[in-house]
Specification:
Elements lengths: L1 E6 L4 H13 L3 E4 L10 H13 L5 E6 L3 H7 L7 E3 L3 H11 L3 E5 L5 H13 L6 H14 L4
Parallel strand pairs: 1-2, 1-3, 3-5, 4-5
Helix pairs in contact: 1-5, 2-3, 4-5
């Protein structure tokens, strides 16, 4: 498995610990930046991670900003991306099991590093959406996204 990861300046302090956790789990990581706490524009990194997932250069993506929300909004503009901002381990599991979220978005200003690491673990340990009930809903989203209403 390969995961693309990116952050803005607010999320930067959490990026390296998340990368370390992913590597501990035997996951290859593609780091698209940023590389410091200097102010930067979060959409740049959201698009880079989302593009990597959409073009299958990475299997999944992780994005970190202050809340995870801005990153999720930007990443969801990329066709085929289902990015979800989470603030609990329960939500991290649910977005993978119910929505087949392929990009996890977390916040450094809304949760502690320990919490965020638990969200990453919960998301990775969850079984991707299975069963017709969830598949039907994911197809509905994909169809709408693709112009088939």
């Amino acid at each position: 498995m390969k995961i693309a990861i990116g952050s803005d300046h607010a999320g930067f302090p959490y990026k390296d610990p998340i990368v370390a956790r992913l590597k501990e789990r035997g996951i290859a990581v593609v780091d698209v930046g940023t590389t410091s706490t200097a102010s930067t524009d979060y959409p740049l990194y959201a698009f880079r991670v989302a593009d990597a997932v959409a073009t299958r250069q990475a299997d999944l993506g992780v994005l970190i900003c202050g809340t995870g929300v801005g990153m999720s909004i930007a990443a969801n503009k990329v066709h085929g991306i289902r990015a979800a901002a989470v603030q609990s381990a329960f939500a991290a599991t649910a977005v993978r099991e119910h929505n087949d979220a392929n990009v996890l978005c977390v916040g450094s200003r809304t949760n502690s590093l320990a919490e965020v690491l638990s969200f990453v673990d919960a998301w990775l340990d969850a079984t991707p959406a299975t069963g017709e009930r969830h598949a039907k809903r994911i197809r509905m989203i994909s169809d709408y996204e693709g112009g088939t209403k």
